[in-house]
Task: inverse folding
């Protein structure tokens, strides 16, 4: 699959056609391979216009939302940027292609470690990652020219506002559930800030001392455990909260839905793959695992092609039991317009027509069973049904002929 072409299609159809015009953001979106930042097995969905689960109840935001936040942050080449909510690391990687230095904070240690490994593998050298409380920012690295928060807070955390440089921009979702609004806070003076409403969004909650905690009853955290990962010079481990108690009534938690959704999707892909493999076995092998079926009747058996190819030779084998009387095999005359009989070995004694079927009579052999091979030639692609019989007993069988 040509991911570069798919990435360009995403930029054109999901971003530029919807108003994203910042050249540096567009170039970053064309450069960073989003498929490297999704869960294994979901690379084919990397450029869909939808968020994807990355574990720990977190998501990688849809490309348009990421591009919108970066554009509204007004990133420049010399900027020092803070991202709150590293997640998969995709947004940090995009920012690193525009800004001079990116600092990224993640509450979940596993996600932080995975993001750090991705950055090292993919060669993103201007990103530092730490585990910590994102609502408190990264004071040691402040001030920042821009701060981008990838989770929703009940209000704009004062610590993040204070860590903005003069003229710095803070992009953050604010609110609960479906009522979240994307805000841009610009520092215009030592204690002066301007705020713009950029529209409605839906993000996972920002958990932290200055966000959803016991002080804000929408979310309640369990006992916190110390962060154990710090990468890059000057980084310090910070306290992080790993698990949440049950959410209060009225609060939407999409974790269970996401797990069921991805489970169903994985199962669908497995079924599709098995069906495709089944077809390929028949196409490539003509004798593969599911390309033939044996019909058992009282007078013997018929080995019948289930999957075949157009204009390719095919064998249908009839096995008669020992008998002192002549044996009869019948098959639909209409079916033989699709599969014409090119030869019969050994030859039949006689032929006749019976109830729309062609009958072949073979001589008796009381000494033992007899095997007859019909050499067929397929003529038309598509699904075909045939009624075959040994003596008076008949069975209906289907065959699919591939072009």
Result:
């Amino acid at each position: 699959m040509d991911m570069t072409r798919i990435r360009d299609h995403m930029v054109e159809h999901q971003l530029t056609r919807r108003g994203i015009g910042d050249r540096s953001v567009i170039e970053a979106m064309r450069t960073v391979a989003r498929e490297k930042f999704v869960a294994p097995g979901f690379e084919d969905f990397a450029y869909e216009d939808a968020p994807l689960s990355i574990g720990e109840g977190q998501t990688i935001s849809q490309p348009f939302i990421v591009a919108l936040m970066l554009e509204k942050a007004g990133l420049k080449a010399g900027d020092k940027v803070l991202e709150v909510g590293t997640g998969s690391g995709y947004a940090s990687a995009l920012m690193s292609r525009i800004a001079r230095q990116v600092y990224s904070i993640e509450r979940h240690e596993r996600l932080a470690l995975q993001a750090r490994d991705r950055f090292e593998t993919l060669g993103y050298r201007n990103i530092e990652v730490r585990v910590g409380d994102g609502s408190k920012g990264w004071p040691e690295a402040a001030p920042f020219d821009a701060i981008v928060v990838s989770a929703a807070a009940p209000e704009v955390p004062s610590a993040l506002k204070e860590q903005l440089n003069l003229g710095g921009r803070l992009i953050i979702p604010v609110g609960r559930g479906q009522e979240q609004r994307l805000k841009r806070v610009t520092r215009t003076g030592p204690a002066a800030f301007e705020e713009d409403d950029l529209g409605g969004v839906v993000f996972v909650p920002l958990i932290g001392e200055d966000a959803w905690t016991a002080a804000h009853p929408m979310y309640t955290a369990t006992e916190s455990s110390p962060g154990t990962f710090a990468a890059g010079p000057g980084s310090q481990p910070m306290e992080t909260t790993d698990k949440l108690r049950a959410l209060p009534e009225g609060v939407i938690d999409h974790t269970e839905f996401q797990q069921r959704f991805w489970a169903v999707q994985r199962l669908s892909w497995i079924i599709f793959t098995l069906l495709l493999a089944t077809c390929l076995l028949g196409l490539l092998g003509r004798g593969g695992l599911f390309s033939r079926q044996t019909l058992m009747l009282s007078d013997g058996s018929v080995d019948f092609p289930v999957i075949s190819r157009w204009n390719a030779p095919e064998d249908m084998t009839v096995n008669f039991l020992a008998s002192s009387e002549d044996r009869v095999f019948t098959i639909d005359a209409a079916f033989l317009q699709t599969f014409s009989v090119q030869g019969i070995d050994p030859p039949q004694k006689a032929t006749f027509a019976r109830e729309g079927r062609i009958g072949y009579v073979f001589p008796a052999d009381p000494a033992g069973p007899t095997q007859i091979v019909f050499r067929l030639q397929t003529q038309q692609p598509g699904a075909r049904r045939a009624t075959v019989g040994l003596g008076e007993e008949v069975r209906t069988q289907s065959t699919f002929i591939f072009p």
